Amino acid sequence: MAISIPRSAPGPSTGLGVVAPPSAHVPTRRSPGPWSRARRRLARNRIALSGAGVLVLVALVAALVPLVVTIDPYQQNLMDSLLPPGSPDHPLGTDHLGRDVLLRLIDGARVTLSVGVIAVVISAGFGGLIGLLAGFRGGRLDALLMRLMDVQLAFPGILAALVIVTVLGSGLDKAMLAVGLGGIPRYARIVRGSVLALRHELFVDAARSLGASDRRIMFAHVAPHALGPVITLATLGLATAMLATASLSFLGLGAQPPTAEWGLMLADGRKYLRVAWWLCVFPGTAVLLTVLAINLFGDGVRDALDPHLATDGD
To answer: CB under 8 Å to 150, separation ≥6 — which residues?
Structure first.
């Protein structure tokens, strides 16, 4: 009795008399993740990239110029007092003590940017932790923490910073801490809302069923998914922190002389506004351009991280 061995069906013909192997696998293109799509949307936003370019340029000048050229923004020369812009060796003029305005602007960029970044880190760090705990734990802890945030939100940000500086004393470090503490409620509210929407997702239930602790679920699974709104708020909050710090310095509660800080330079220059306009115009322009660049970049980051603005090209 003959036994017939079944053969596999021939593959599809290619039209040239060649039969393609039946096991040929056509690779599929992997869909990009949300961060990749956000990066593509941000790369197409020329206005946001222009703001980022200005911000990077200011940061590079503040960081690299002191390493390449020996500058002393505190060197005084009363013989060169109030020289106008375009003077020899002083492209942007000098102040009432003969100090070079350009060198003080460069050093002030380092001070102002670093203070703004540290203030945002304080706000995002403490506010994000409070929002994460309140949203994930819920119950009485959530109610207690949010009522504390509501009390702080009842005060305007600059007023809360003034109160903190009045209690702690004047100084750049005190102003930085005051601005950072004043921004905590905004981050706490944003993170809490994101966590409330995430804590009942399937990946949280899956992690809990595998024996993951609440701490691991919070920091390893929930927190990364809540980073989008935090990054957006932090980018826009950097401009707010810089303005608040400059305002406190302008009022005499932040940086103290002879620190080269843009807000303090504005406060010193207003006394000589009629005879030396450049003492206010150049620091004010530096604050304006830097804050505008941060806001433009922050708007681009917000649009890039918004899934409702996705297009077919993403």
So the answer is: 185
CA distance 302 to 162: 30
Residues in contact with 212: Cβ distance below 8 Å, sequence separation at least 6, in sequence order: 220, 221
Q: Tell me how crowded residue 12 is: count the other CB atoms within 10 A of its CB.
A: 11
Amino acid sitting at position 160: A
pLDDT of residue 32: 62
Residue 298 in contact with residue 232, Cβ under 8 Å?
yes
- In angstroms, rounded to a whole number, what is the distance separating the alpha carbons of residues 252 and 288? 20
pLDDT digits (tens, 9 = 90+) for 157-194: 777 778 888 888 888 888 889 889 888 999 999 999 98
Which residues does 185 contact at the CB level (< 8 Å), separation at least 6? Answer: 127, 149, 150, 152, 153
pLDDT class for 41, splitting at 50, 70, 90? confident
- Who has greater pLDDT, 38 or 276? 276
Identify any residues that bridge with 13 across adjacent strands, giving them in sequence order.
19
State the Cα–Cα distance between residues 314 and 300, nearest whole angstrom. 15
Please name the fold of domain 41-69+94-309.
Answer: MetI-like fold (1.10.3720)
Which residues fall within 8 angstroms of residue 156, CB to CB, at 6 or more apart?
none
Please give the full DSSP string across 33-62, using - where no structure is assigned.
-HHHHHHHHHHT-HHHHHHHHHHHHHHHHH
Q: Cα separation of 179 and 161, whole Å?
A: 6
Query: Taking the domains of the chain in order of start, what are their residue ranges?
Result: 41-69+94-309
Specify burial of residue 82 (Cβ count, 10 A radius: 0-12, 13-18, 19+).
middle
User: Which residue pairs from 55-60 have beta carbons closer than 8 angstroms and sit at least 24 positions apart in sequence?
Assistant: 55/290, 55/293, 55/294, 55/297, 58/109, 58/113, 58/289, 58/290, 58/293, 59/109, 59/113
Q: Which residue has the higher pLDDT, 164 or 293?
A: 293
